[in-house]
Amino acid sequence: MILPRFDVLTPATVTEACALLAAHTAAGVRILAGGTDLLVELRRPIIPQHVPRCDGCPTHPEGAVFSTIDCTMWNSEPLMAAGGSVRAAVKPPAFLLSLHKLRDLRGLQKRTDGSLRVGACTTITDIERSRDIREGWTALAEGADNLGSPLVRNRGTVGGNIANARPAADTAVPTIALRATLVLRSTSGIRTIAAADFPTGPGKTIINPGEILTYIEYPAPAKYSGSAYHKLANRKALEISTVGVAVYLALETPGGPVADVSVALGAVGPKPLAAASVGPVLLGRIPDETAINDAARAAMEDARPIDDHRGSAWYRLQMVEVLTRRLLKTALARAEGKK
């Protein structure tokens, strides 16, 4: 892997990290946690598929050329011929702000009120192996189970996976379903936002320049509740999901009506989506076959998939319904202590 030149900043405290981030924002700075996504993004375009395509410029009047050096568009604004386009090279950051010394941002803390605080630099492996998470926030553990490979899980962090804002992120989808809150910190103070409101598009979030995602806070699960996550992909490891669904379900009493429900969808929209239509359909009802089928259809209507090489939009819609139905039943069984 060939990387561009950059300097690495290594703060010893979160306060210092916020100060360094603010000081170097204008020059270009990216946060480095596990690096499993960031370093891949920064690699130099040496493979043709990753090289900008010129569809017409003074150097290449005929267009349809892959080039790294001689195209006039490479280091300048695109000068397009009629109907032409160019995938411009992304300017690399001048600095990487490494969080590897910030031990305060690692680990899990189960609080006296039953809620859970997870440091943003906690590895996916730590999430996967936590008994507390697997018992109380099962969907998050199952998201960690499905992320990348053992090597990726050992390096990658839950904060990085969420902050990267990819539509198919395996811990972001259950984090939304479990109604977590994200804690952002900067030199101006602390800001908390709902996980569902954090992503705005592919790779885009509402985080401000100079802010760091420090913690993810998960509310305590209700007494009779359960959650589940499933990743549908073309292979079992090192694959981006075709569809991801996470469900949280709580009952008033075992065998009773639904007291709370939340469904989140991955890879079926420009960002991880909260399926808001499910609640009005299922709340207050006994979760029998009819009610669950109605809720699954509601989730399908909230999906906004596209066709790509992993699957068609039509197929994804069908799978949202199938997986939501299946996971509602799994979460119901867990809420009743059966699974």
Order of helices and strands: EHEHEEEEEHHHHHHEEEEEEEEEHHH
* Outline type: globular
Low-pLDDT runs of 5+ residues are 46-51, 73-89
Gross CATH architecture of the largest domain: 2-Layer Sandwich
Percent strand equals: 15-25%
Q: CATH class of the largest domain, please?
A: Alpha Beta
What's the N-to-C terminus distance?
Answer: 45 Å
Helix content range:
25-40%
According to DSSP, the number of beta strands is: 16
Number of helices: 11
Count of discrete domains: 3
Q: Which structural category fits the helices and strands?
A: alpha+beta
CATH topology of the largest domain: Uridine Diphospho-n-acetylenolpyruvylglucosamine Reductase, domain 3
The overall average pLDDT, rounded, is: 88
Rg from alpha-carbon coordinates: 22 Å
- Major sheet strand order: 6-7-12-8-9
For the sheet with most strands, the description reads: 5 strands, antiparallel
Written description of the protein model:
By secondary structure, this protein is an alpha+beta fold. The protein folds into three domains: 7-97, no CATH class; 103-218, Uridine Diphospho-n-acetylenolpyruvylglucosamine Reductase, domain 3 (2-Layer Sandwich); 231-335, CO dehydrogenase flavoprotein, C-terminal domain (Enolase-like, domain 1). Helices cover 28% and strands 22% of the residues. The chain is built from eleven helices and 16 strands. The protein has helices at residues 14-24, 38-42, 124-129, 131-136, 138-145, 150-155, 158-163, 172-177, 278-282, 289-302, 313-335, and strands at 7-9, 29-32, 53-54, 65-66, 95-98, 108-110, 116-119, 181-186, 189-194, 199-201, 204-205, 212-218, 225-232, 243-251, 258-266, 273-274. Helix 10 packs across helix 11. The protein is globular. The chain starts with 6 loop residues before the first strand and ends with a helix.
